[in-house]
Amino acid sequence: MSSVAVDERLGEVGRVRRLLVRPELGAVVGAIVVFVFFASQSAVFRSVSGIANWLDPAATLGIMAVAIALLMIGGEFDLSAGVLTGTTGLVLVTLSTRFGLNVWLAMLVGLAVALAVGFANGLIVTRTRLPSFIVTLGTFLMLQGINLGVTKMITGTVQVSGLRKAPGFESARVVFGGTIGDSGFRVAIIWWILVTIVASWVLMRSRAGNWIFAVGGNEQAARAVGVPAARTKIALFMTTAFAAWLVGSIMALRFTSVQANAGIGQEFIYIIAAVIGGCLLTGGYGSAIGASIGAIIFGMADKGIVFLGWDADWFMFFLGAMLLLATLANRMVRRYAEEVKH
After folding, report:
1. What's the angle, vertex CA 254, arms to CA 248 and CA 260, rounded to 5?
2. Cβ(76)–Cβ(125) under 8 Å?
3. Residue 210's Cα: distance from chain center in Å?
4. Are 64 and 133 in contact (CB under 8 A)?
5. How far apart are CA 150 and CA 133, in angstroms?
6. β-strand 257-259 against 159-161: which pairing, if any?
7. Is residue 11 classed exposed, middle or buried when 0-12, 13-18 and 19+ CB atoms within 10 A define those classes?
8. What does the alpha-carbon distance between residue 22 and residue 228 come to, in Å, rounded to a whole number?
9. Contact 251, 60 (CB under 8 A)
10. Per-residue pLDDT in tens (0 to 9) along the chain, 342 residues
C-alpha cells in the first residue's frame, strides 16, 4: 500500500494557530514594542545598568503578578494582596527589632500569618459563595487598619525601622534582599524567575493546573467531573499569600524599615500586569509567563519614562492605555481560540 502524502501546509497552519491563541502573545508583542521605543530613545535604558534598573521593579511585581494570574485563571480576585505585603514586612521588622527574634524566625512567623490570611480568604469565598472581590476587599480594609493601628501602638509612629541591627539580618538579606555579585542585578530577579518556572509547570504539566483551568472556566462542570474546586481555590489564595510574604520580606530586608501603609494600591497593579499578560477577568484563561511579561512592560515603562525625562504622571496614562489594549487583544484572541476549537 502506498502511503498518503501529508500536506506540509496543514502542519504549519496548526503551529501558527497554536501560536496565535497563546495568551501571552499580545504581551510579547507589547514588550518588544515598548523595549524598542525606549531603547531607541535612551542609551541608559539599553545599558546593563539600565536593564538592571528596570528589571528591579519588574521582579517584585512579577512575583505577585504570577500568583495573581493563577488566582485569576481560577476565576477569583484578591484585593488584599498588596496590603498583605506590607503586613508581612511589618511582622518581620517588628518581631526582629522590638521583640528580639532572629530575622529568619520572624520571617517564618510572617509566612504563617500570610498563609493564615490566604486560607481564611479562600475558606470564606468557598463556604459563603460571596464574590472574592467583596471578601478580599474586607480583608484589605481590616489589614490596613491593623497595620496602622498596631504600628502606631508599638512605635508611636507609622513606621518600624532598625532591621539592620537584628540578628540574622545579613544572611537573610543576601538570600532575599541583596544583589547578584557586583552585577547590580537584584536577587529578587532569581526569585521571580523561579516563581514563574514553578507556576508555569503547575499550570501546563500538572493535574493541579488542569483543576485551576477547570474551576476558572466552569466551576459547576468542574465539580461534576470530580475536580476539588474548593480545595483548589483555597490553595490559590494561599499561593497569593505566599507571594505577598516573599515580596514583603524582600522589600523589608532591602530597605530595613516598613511603613504602615506599604503595599496599599499595589493590588490593582498586580491585576493589570496579569491582564496585560493575557489573563481574562472571567477566569479560565491566561499564563504565568504572560503575567511576568506584563511585569516587564511595567518595569520598562516605569523607568523608561524617568530616563527620558518625562513627567511621571504619563506613566499612569501609559498603564491605563496598556490595560485597555491588552483587554481588547485578549478578547480577540479568546474569540479566535474558540473558533479554532469549533
Report:
1. 50
2. yes
3. 20
4. no
5. 25
6. antiparallel
7. exposed
8. 26
9. yes
10. 444 444 443 444 466 566 556 777 778 888 888 899 899 998 999 999 999 999 999 999 999 999 999 999 999 999 999 999 999 999 999 999 999 999 999 999 999 999 999 999 999 999 999 999 999 999 999 999 999 999 999 989 999 999 999 999 999 999 999 999 888 899 999 999 999 999 999 999 999 999 999 999 999 999 999 999 999 999 999 999 999 999 999 999 999 999 999 999 899 999 999 988 888 888 888 899 999 999 999 999 889 888 888 887 777 787 788 777 777 776 676 666 556 555
| Distance (Å, whole) CA 76 – CA 68 | 9
Measured distance between the N- and C-terminal CA atoms of the chain, rounded to whole angstroms:
33
Q: Look-up: residue for cell 526569585? A: 191
From the list 104, 36, 92, 27, the residue with the least C-alpha distance to 66 is: 27
Q: Which amino acid is at 196?
A: T
Prediction pTM value: 0.90
Residue type (1 letter), 236: L
Q: What is the CB neighbour count within 10 angstroms for residue 318?
A: 17
Do 93 and 258 contact (CB within 8 A), yes or no?
yes
Query: In sequence order, what E strands does the chain have?
Result: 159-161, 257-259
CA angle 198, 17, 14 (to 5 degrees): 100
Cell numbers placing 100: 528580639
Q: Which residue type sits at 119?
A: F
